[in-house]
């Protein structure tokens, strides 16, 4: 075994020991009630939720893919980092209201909430099926990436399959033994490892580049050429720009990938907008909706939304991950840049376009000659990031299948001890199915994981009806959901495979993501059926659904001093959606200097589109703060949730006192200090 492999083994063992510790400790905590095992007794504190939920939401889905695709597609793909704003934007409108309903009615899974509200077995079963088909391929991708990382960094000493099967058992143990308590406890450290790993990888690349001046000048030279994976924009987006440095227009009337591809790259302004909106599916899915039930109080969500998602994840994606992907092109990874003599150095091996997924591993290997221990630490950071999302999916999907399928339709009166055993067995089966997929069915793993979030996004209509619009009927929500899922499939690669490539369009026609194509049909069907039902007055469950909305409206009104801000909130949200992540993005192509005009013409000394994205990211943080705090969408309810409303009254409830008034908000200043520290590091790296 080489010294490098030894360091990797040491860090994996330390990480595994920590995970096993929390698996054992969690098992002693959660064995006596469903709430403790499934939701950590609905008592997850502010700072724990802040770290664990941030990592679970973003780390596994971005830690490898974001760097790889920025390296291949350039600054046009950097715009997808606006998921740091759109994801918390989605949670702002749904998390607090779901939390309130779970407190009143004692829901453990979203399926229980869907059934109780819509009185529909179909919607409940659909939530189980969607959870199943989302969880298994995504977990398989994360486990497979873990095995591949170990295989490469151990220099082939450990095979991909062996590394994947052995290391992934860590997840199985602490999930099945410790339940949700272990998920969030381990998730705190996983989030730290994720943050530190992404920051260090960005700093490593930046240190080899030299400084910001060298970085900008090198990029300016490339921008004046046609060196790009997608060529030039040919007039789309305001000029004939290098596609690596500009968006190829607002929208392109093309059939889609695999048929008639967009000129200058697929990431038009509309493509970025629809992609980032669809990414909300990760928190709208039943798997992550369940997280909203676990919080001690709803103000917890504002820390996650503002500081976790908008600030920290935005910083990681817009700055450090961008440095990794773009910087790798300047350090020898891009063959075309090398052949034209435009690389700063040749530290990285050349990587063909079809192998750009390897770039993150080569960046880690840069430390081999300087600090082998750091290579091991970075590798474990990547593993922790992947396992954070994998463990969250394994826990919630197993819980949902147990409660909404087995307990609801197979054995309704099952005692808790047996239910716990069933839940663990189901989690084991999901675990084995994921590993089987990652080992023996890689093409299927890639295809199904590619459509999972877009399918989950279709639940937005179900949630809108449940939490906001009582006029959306059961049949409308169910029909819209089914049609939306079908359209997602037909506008993805799998649709061509099912139909024998007979469809006239390809993947993402008109540079619009499949999730939004599904939503368009979903909304049309849902609103049409709801409108017909309301006109003909055949909606027999309207009064039942209205009780839920009366409760929400009674407890969640806007503070009287801020009612006049409602119109202002609509205006700034629409402005940000249009100029920040929507069609207005195309203005950023040359707003701060044309890409090919040379370094001196770049006003910010970085590519115009990147500067534009950073500015609107900053405005996005302000939008999230305003909506969550000033519009009371992530604050404490304005009326007590009475003790007799609760499924299992917590100890702090006394008489008519609202227990959430006692929880305090003392962690806010800690998070502010962490944010200031992170910004100080960035300032030092860039300007000192």
Descriptive overview:
It is a single chain. With 688 residues, the chain is an all-alpha fold. It has a single domain, classed as Sodium/glucose cotransporter, CATH 1.20.1730. 67% of the residues lie in helices and 0% in strands. The protein contains 27 helices and no strands. The protein has helices at residues 3-29, 34-39, 46-62, 65-73, 75-78, 83-105, 110-118, 121-153, 160-209, 212-223, 269-278, 281-284, 286-289, 299-333, 335-339, 359-365, 372-410, 416-440, 442-457, 459-467, 474-490, 493-498, 514-536, 542-555, 566-580, 608-630, 668-687. α9 packs across α18. The longest helix is centred in the N-terminal third of the chain and has 50 residues, at 160-209. The two termini are 41 Å apart. 56% of the residues are buried.
Number of domains: 1
Cα(first) to Cα(last) distance is 41 Å
Name of the top-level CATH class = Mainly Alpha
Low-confidence stretches: 645-673, 681-688
Task: Supply database-style keywords.
688 residues
Give the SSE map.
Elements: H1 3-29, H2 34-39, H3 46-62, H4 65-73, H5 75-78, H6 83-105, H7 110-118, H8 121-153, H9 160-209, H10 212-223, H11 269-278, H12 281-284, H13 286-289, H14 299-333, H15 335-339, H16 359-365, H17 372-410, H18 416-440, H19 442-457, H20 459-467, H21 474-490, H22 493-498, H23 514-536, H24 542-555, H25 566-580, H26 608-630, H27 668-687
Helix pairs in contact: 1-9, 1-17, 3-9, 3-14, 3-17, 4-14, 6-14, 6-26, 7-8, 8-9, 8-17, 8-18, 8-19, 9-14, 9-17, 9-18, 14-26, 14-27, 17-18, 19-23, 20-21, 21-23, 25-26
């Amino acid at each position: 075994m080489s010294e490098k492999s030894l360091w990797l083994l040491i860090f994996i063992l330390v990480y595994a020991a920590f995970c096993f510790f929390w698996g054992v400790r969690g098992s002693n905590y959660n064995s006596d009630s469903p709430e403790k095992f499934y939701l950590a007794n609905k008592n997850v504190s502010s700072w724990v939720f802040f770290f664990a939920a941030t990592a679970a939401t973003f780390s596994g889905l971005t830690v490898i893919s974001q760097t790889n695709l920025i390296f291949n597609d350039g600054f046009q793909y950097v715009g997808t980092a606006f998921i740091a704003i759109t994801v918390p934007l989605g949670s702002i409108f749904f998390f607090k209201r779901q939390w309130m309903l779970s407190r009143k009615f004692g829901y453990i899974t979203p399926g229980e909430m869907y059934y109780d509200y819509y009185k529909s077995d179909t919607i409940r079963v659909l939530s189980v099926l969607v959870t199943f088909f989302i969880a298994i391929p995504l977990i398989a991708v994360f486990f497979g990436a873990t095995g591949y990382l170990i295989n490469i960094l151990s220099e082939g000493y450990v095979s991909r399959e062996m590394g994947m099967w052995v290391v992934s058992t860590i997840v199985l143990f602490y999930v099945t033994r410790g339940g949700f308590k272990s998920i969030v406890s381990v998730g705190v450290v996983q989030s730290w490892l994720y943050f530190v790993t992404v920051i260090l990888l960005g700093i490593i690349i930046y240190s080899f580049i030299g400084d910001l001046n060298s970085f900008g000048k090198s990029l300016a030279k490339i921008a004046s050429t046609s060196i790009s994976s997608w060529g030039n924009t040919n007039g789309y987006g305001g000029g004939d720009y290098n596609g690596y440095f500009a968006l190829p227009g607002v929208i392109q009337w093309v059939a889609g990938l695999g048929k008639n591809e967009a000129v200058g790259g697929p990431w038009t302004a509309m493509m970025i907008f629809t992609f980032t909106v669809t990414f909300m599916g990760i928190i709208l899915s039943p798997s992550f909706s369940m997280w909203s039930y676990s919080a001690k109080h709803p103000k917890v969500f504002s820390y996650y939304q503002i500081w976790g998602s908008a600030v920290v994840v935005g910083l990681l994606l817009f700055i450090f991950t961008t440095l990794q992907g773009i910087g790798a092109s300047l350090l020898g990874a891009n063959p075309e840049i090398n052949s034209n003599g435009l690389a700063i150095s040749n530290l990285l091996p050349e990587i063909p376009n079809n192998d750009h997924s390897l770039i993150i591993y080569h960046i880690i290997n840069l430390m081999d000659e300087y600090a082998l221990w750091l290579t091991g630490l970075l590798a474990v950071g990547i593993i922790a990031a992947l396992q954070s999302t994998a463990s969250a999916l394994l826990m919630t999907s197993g819980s949902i299948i147990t409660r909404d399928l087995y307990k609801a339709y197979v054995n309704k009166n099952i005692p808790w001890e047996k239910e716990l055993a069933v839940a663990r067995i189901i989690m084991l089966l999901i675990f084995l199915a994921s590993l089987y997929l990652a080992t023996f069915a890689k093409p299927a793993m890639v295809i199904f994981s590619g459509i999972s979030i877009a399918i989950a996004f279709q639940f937005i209509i179900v949630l809108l009806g449940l939490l906001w619009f009582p006029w959306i009927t059961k049949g409308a929500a169910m029909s819209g959901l089914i049609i939306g899922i079908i359209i997602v499939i037909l506008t993805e690669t799998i649709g061509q495979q099912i139909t024998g490539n007979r469809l006239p369009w390809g993947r993402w026609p008109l540079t619009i993501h499949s999730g939004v194509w599904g939503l368009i049909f979903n909304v049309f069907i849902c609103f049409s059926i709801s409108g017909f039902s309301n006109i003909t007055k055949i909606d027999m469950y309207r009064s039942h659904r209205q009780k839920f909305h009366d409760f929400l409206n009674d407890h969640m009104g806007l503070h009287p001093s801020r009612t006049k801000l409602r119109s202002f909130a609509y205006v700034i949200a629409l402005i940000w959606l249009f100029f920040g992540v929507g069609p207005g993005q195309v203005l950023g192509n040359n707003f701060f200097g044309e890409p090919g005009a040379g370094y001196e013409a770049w006003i910010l000394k970085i590519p115009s589109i990147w500067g534009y994205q950073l500015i609107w990211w900053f405005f996005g943080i302000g939008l999230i703060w305003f909506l969550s705090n000033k519009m009371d969408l992530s604050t404490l309810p304005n009326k007590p949730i009475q003790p007799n409303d609760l499924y299992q009254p917590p100890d702090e409830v006394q008489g008519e006192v609202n227990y959430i008034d006692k929880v305090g908000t003392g962690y806010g200043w800690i998070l502010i200090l962490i944010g200031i520290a992170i910004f100080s590091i960035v300032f030092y790296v860039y300007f000192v």
